[in-house]
Amino acid sequence: MAAERDRGPSGSTASARSRIRLDQPQPRRTRVLPEWDPEAFGRMSERIARFLGTGRFIVWMTVVIAVWLVWNVTAPRPLRFDPYPFIFLTLMLSLQASYAAPLILLAQNRQDDRDRVNLEQDRKQNERSIADTEYLTREVAALRTGLGEVATRDWIRSELQDLVRELDGRRRPDGQAPFPAERPGERDTDDG
Length: 192
Fold this sequence. Notes:
The protein is mainly α. The chain has 5 helices and no strands. It is elongated.
């Protein structure tokens, strides 16, 4: 019975290769293509694209082309490396353009990804702000409703003024108040 377990799978599940051990790392395979960090490559492409979009690049490119043209027109014939039709200059500019375009597109794609993330964060922040505003609006409405039932200073003042007017209307004909206020120290002595 133990010998059957050690033999491995048999029948339709059997294979010619040995079993893969999951508890051990696989041997390192050699890669044909070079490996690179996509994030580092993206940052580099953004730096290049940023430089290509500056006035400094335009000035340097103009200087290089001007020197190229002046050299190949005015230098002695044996020292000219790109005579009049300037085919090599055209090739170099085409090469530069063929590398610049994908780098600029890569930088734009990365910027689009960042913009998308920022837009999503802004949308979530706006949703939270709207929810907070609605909550605060409900709270203010509840406070206003509650304050409608609370006596305010103006209401109390008007009620007291009404009471004073009513008391003034109840005065006796002799000018005495119906309920004279007790003076301090005076008490009814008739009770004793």
